[in-house]
Every structure is written in structure tokens, then in C-alpha cells.
Amino acid sequence: MKQQNTSMLHPDENLLTAFAEQALTPGERGQVLAHLADCGRCREVVFLAQSSLPDVESPQLVPVSRRRSWRMAFAGASAFALIAMACTTLLVHRHGRKAELASPTTQALAVSPPAAGITAPTQAPREAAPRSLNPDLSSERRPPSPARSAARSQKQSAQVPAQDQRAQEHRLQALQVRGQQLTESPPTPRPLPVMPTGQAPSPLEPGTARSVTREVQPAIALHKTQAPASQRFARVPNREANEGLLLGASARASAGSAPNSLGVSSSAMQTASVSVDQEVVTGQPAHPVVFAVRDGLIERSYGGKPALLFLPNRSRAVAVASLPRALLGLDASGLLFRSADGGTHWAAVAQQWAGKAVTLSALPASTPHIESGTNRLELDQAGNAGPGAKPADVNAALLPGPSPSPHEERKNMAQPLRTVDGQFELMNNEGKSWVSLDGGVTWQPR
Amino acid sequence: MSATPIQAADTLPVSIAGDVLRPCIDELWSRSQAARYGLTCEDLALVLHEIGSTYHWGLAKGAEPRTPQQVEFLETLKMDDLVLARACAAGNERAWEAFLSQYREMLYSAAYGIVRQDTLGRELADSLYADLYGTADHEGIRRSRLLSYSGRGSLPGWLRSVLAQRFIDHLRRTQRQVSLDEGQAESIAAPATEPPASEPDLRRIALCVRQAIANLEAPDRMLLSSYYIDGRTLLEIARVLGVHESTVSRKLDRLAGSLRKDLLKRMERMGMSRAEARESLHTDVRDFDFSLRDLLQAGATGPFPEEEGAGK
Question: Which of A89, A372, B130, B139 has the smallest number of Cβ neighbours within 10 A?
Fold first, then answer.
């Protein structure tokens, strides 16, 4: 542990991390806890480190462009329906056999009245043959022979009062009807929607990441629901990580794969799996998020469900503007606040304009792009690299120099990626405007 | 817990012939695929022994570690992360590629999550990244900050902790601005609803409060400090302690209740009546001459030693 003075030993970051992750031994945990009880500084480190994790308390607002498409929802529902039908078929098979075996009994009850002098029921011959190698439930759990069942039932019915016997018969008839219903074959499943015919997708070049055309999207959606878990990618919260996926998928895409029955090459599907995630994340919203000002509060509507948001200090909001990556709120005194998580947390924006800000607006970019220094990579509306983009193009756009070595790559870390998906515009009380291209952090006069 | 920093493998004294932990280390080595990053089994053995002795194999000081305990300790280490960190510290290019692809964006998003400001967050992440890459000392030997990662916790968690420490250092170096709310709270005097307690009563109450708080267990003090002094939410506390939010809430309620009872008992033992004791619980805390913050935490809040490079 670090030693600050002779009387105080601070746990190092390894121990603080292990404490927060419950990875210490009980003895160590007790010691760290005892220290944290006394040391505000170390507590601050632990809490700050944990605070940088995604917040699980407030629902993460997914930007409008990342909403799951209705096609994905339909594909999911189709998959569920198939599974449900498969289960129903299995159940039908089992119940059908039971109903078939049970029906002679019920028929005997319904038809033959109780009669005297009934002969003793004959024992069903015990199986002399050895058990089948393919265990069949019907052979193992064969119900008693019909004659024996009928005799037993007749004996029972003779003991039952007439009124109860009629009720019993009604119940048995209902069971019989139900048994007959279960033996019927399940309804034919509805056919899946026909894929829209369009231009056949061209096979992709190896390692190419390309955007998915609308015609291909349903096929990809279907593929995604059928894809094994290993092909599914974890949803990532920001576009930069999506770009990482793009690069990764581009590297993994195989060359010259033959198209499958859906008309999409497997390399495209592999790459498109990433694009589907992109599409899922950045596609058309089923429930767009709408922000508006109502009575001095910011109203956030998602899927028809409104929620009210407060600006810091409960100040009265007069304007709100949003882009996929940032939400800005302007209060009555001209203070501007910015939220990167849909209004859950706010930070004040330092004033970089003259006068008092009175209006706010957002202009989505017609060509969203990623830039790093002077390099720029256009994105489509789904957030994918432009058509025909190769990994080399992506690298060139994101990192200075063609195919930089890892050594250069590290040195270029001072130029991180910046995604530009629109601009905010602010007007002051004198009618002058300022614009921000980085989500409201910095402002320049128009 | 030892204060010895973890050293680079090549500076460690030596050979661990006849190492009873070797089978375990061999297995950990093969499982972690350290060979992919050029880390030999011997290298890993040296590193693991150093970590084990630094943290005394997770045991109390003075306890003699037995082999099963050592094996158990090694099994708790995040081997993949440790191997990656050590390989990066050794300058393995492949390891750096893997590190960049996994943690480059995570660093920036974690920095932003801590600082909540784009520019400062980026600066923080950039400066940490430079230290992770390593700076040459006066002898020209590059020392990477990653050498101090021990695998006790996850590498992303360790990176977040380091970022948090740097941010706190930054705050302490620059002038901290008192928020408007705090300033207003301090300047506004609460209207006096009742006459303050007399001096002897205040002294008795203060003594009881000191004794009651000193009587609290460390976990309880930590909970109270986090909630009432640091202003952490139930969720934040729950996350750190690894329990459910409702558990934290119940614990706080129980603590407050037991503290109140303890205070009342102590005040009665000092000669106050039950009614007087209850009344004194409503005393304005500003009438006291002590700070609850100081009572709850013994507190050194001075800055951590400046980091000069690697291996601290």
C-alpha cells in the first residue's frame, strides 16, 4: 500500500479496484473497509471509479437513430412463434397418444350401461418380450386394457349417485372432445414474408465493410435471428466503439463466399451482422424520443410515455434541442446545460457567446462523419462507413498516415475520434448566432 | 499490506527453482495464452511470486502462507489482464494492439464518465495513456505504469481507479470552486426556533456523540460517511459494496436507529432525563464545537504522492 505518512497507509489502486469488485479476501476487505471508513480521499477514488461505469439506475435513452427497427421486432416475433409452434406440436403428439388410448375407455362408459353379472376382468398379458431398445412411452406406461378399465369404471359408476354420475359423464365427454381436438393436426404456420425482390447484392470484396441496403435488410434481419450466439455482437453505447466493430468485422470478412439462399454472401452476412447491429443501433426508430418544453420543464416522450426532466437547480427551461449524441437545455436566465445521457445528468456549458442566450435549435448533419485531426470518414445514416470503404480507407481516415505502425498509432492518441452528427445553434438577445459542432461543448460565432 | 511496489520482471532477483507452485503457474500460463505475447512461464512465475509476496498472498501479516492458500490467491488473479498488461509493459507490439483495440475507447469513456467534461476527460485519458506507454527514466529505461497493475482487480477497473486518482489530484491542484448551493447554505443563518442549549449540556451531548460514533464499526462508519458526508446515492454505495440498493437503505435505517438509541442511553447515563435526552437530539449541530465529518473519518485527505513514472 502507498504510505502517505507514518500513521496512514492508503490502499493502492489495485486493492481499491479489487475491493469494488469484491475480489479481496475477507481479511483484506475488512482492512480496506476500515481504511475507507476513515479516509474520504480513498472513498472518493472508489466511488468515482465506479461512477464511470454505465448507470444502471436510470434507463439509458437510446438516440433516435439507434432504435430497433420494426423488421427486427417482426423477426423476433416470428422466431418466437416458430418455437411456440414446435412446443405445441410436441404437446399435441403426446396428448394425441393419450387421447387415443383414453378414448375407448370413455366410449365404453358412455355407451354401455352398468350391467350385472359382469365377468371378471381379464388381466392384460404382461409383456413377455424384452423392452424395446427405443423406449416408447406408450409401451412403458400402457394404460390398463379397455375391458379392465370398463369393468373398473362400471364398478365405480355403480357406486356413484345418479346425479354425480351424470356430471361425471359430462366431464368425460368434455375430455373426449378435448382429446379429439388435441389429435387434430396443428394449424399450418403462416408463411414468412416474401423477401422483396430487388437488385441481387454483389459479392463483397474481402475485408470490405459496407452499408446494408434497404432491400437486403429483411434478409439480414432474418439471418440475425437465426444466427448463433457467437455471431451476435454486444450492443455498444457509442459510435466510436461501433467503428471498432466495423474494423474488426472487416478484418474477419472472408473472401469469395458464395451467396446463400437468401441471396446474400456469407461474407456480407458476416460483415452485415455488424452492420445489422449498427442498423439496430442506428436504424429507424420504432419509438422516437421527443423533447419539448412544457411549463418550464423539459418533457421527454418515448413511446408515447412522457417524463419530465429538471434542469439543474430546478431552473425554468425555455428551450431544448437534441441531436443523437447530446441534449441541450436553456433556462430562463440564459444558462445552457448539456446532457449526454438523455437528460439524466446535466453539466453547465461555459458561456462562449455574448449577451444572453434566448433560443436554441439543432440541425442534424446531412452527412454524419467521423473526424480525427484533418482526416474525415463519411458515415451513412446507419452509422456505417460509406460504400466501398476498405479497412485501409478507414484506417487512413481515423489515423494519420497510411497504415500507421502501432508505435505511430500510440503517438497519435492525442487526436481522438470525434463524431459530427449535426450542429446546435444558439441565438442571443441581440439576434446574433453561435454554432457548436461538437454537441454543445464549444461554440463559435456564426 | 506491503508497500513494496511491483518491479519489472527483469529486475527481480531470481530463480525460483524447486517452486512448489510451478504446476499451478504452468497451468495458469497455458490458460492465459501468455505465449502469444512472448511471456515465458518463467517470466510469469517471477511476476506472480512478486505479486503474492507484495500482498502477502491475501493473508494477514505474520501469517505463514501455505501452498493451498497461495494457489487460491493465484487463482483469484485476473490472469488474462495481467498477462496483457505485463506484455504491454515489456513493449510487445501484439499486446499493444490488443490493448488498444480493447481499452482505447474505454479509457476515453471512463474519463468522461468521471470528469463529465469532454476536454478535461480527454486530457486525463491522454495523460494516462502516455504513462501506460511508458516514459524513460534518467537511465533511459522505459517504465510503464502498467507494471503496477497486479491483477487483483480487472484491468478496466484498475484503469478507472487510476483515472479517478488523477482527477482527484487535478482537483486538488486547481482551485476547487464551491458550488452556489453550498455557499448559500453556509451564508444563510437558520432562523432560531428555540434557544440554544446551555454550554454544559452542549459539552455532554458532544461527548456522547463522540463516544457513540467512536463505538461504531468501520463498515458502519464507512456507510454513514459515504451517505451523509460524501453525499453518495444508495445505488452508488450498493455498487461499491456489492449489495442491493435496498440492503444499503435498510442498513442505513438500522444504523440511524441504533445510533439514536445509543446516544439516548449515553446521555441518560450522564444524568440527563429521558425527555431532556430526546430534546437534545434536536440541538442545532452548528452549536457544537466538533465536526461530524472529522468524527466519522479520521481522515487524511492530503494528496497522494505524485507519480513519477512506473511501478508505484
Answer: B139
Angle at A425 between CA A420 and CA A427, to 5 degrees: 165
pLDDT tens for A84-122 read 787 788 887 777 666 665 555 444 444 444 444 444 444
Q: Are B144 and B6 in contact (CB under 8 A)?
A: no
β-pair type (B135-136, A444-445): unpaired
d(CA B293, CA B279): 23
- Tell me the three cell numbers of residue B303: 494528496
Q: Is the pLDDT of residue B176 over 60?
A: no
What does residue A177 show for φ and ψ, rounded to 5 degrees? -60, -45
pLDDT tens digits, B49-94: 999 999 999 988 888 888 899 999 999 999 999 999 999 998 889 9
Q: What is the pTM of this model?
A: 0.46
pLDDT band at residue B311, thresholds of 50, 70 and 90? very low
Give Dmax over CA atoms of chain A in angstroms: 111
Which cell numbers hold the place of A41? 480521499
**What distance in Å separates residue A352's CA from the closest CA in chain B?**
15
Alpha helices, H only, A326-444? 391-398, 406-411
Question: Which residues, numbered 217 to 276 in chain A, qualify as contacts with chain B under a Cβ-Cβ cut-off of 8 Å?
Answer: 237-238, 240-241, 244, 248
Segment among A257-266, A299-308, B82-91 with least mean pLDDT: A257-266
Specify whether the CB–CB gap between B148 and B134 falls below 8 A.
no
Residues A369, A379 contacting (CB under 8 angstroms): yes
Residues of B in contact with A438 (CB under 8 A): 118
> d(Cα B128, Cα B145) in Å, to the nearest integer?
8
Of the pLDDT bands very low, low, confident and very high (cuts 50, 70, 90), residue B297 is low
| ipTM confidence | 0.80
Residues of B in contact with A51 (CB under 8 A): 113-114, 236
Sequence-distant (6+) residues with CB within 8 A of A261 are none
Phi, psi of A347 (to 5 degrees): -135, 140
* DSSP labels, A120-174: PPPPPPPP-SPPPSS--HHHHTPPPPHHHHHHHHHHHHHHS-HHHHHHHHHHHHH
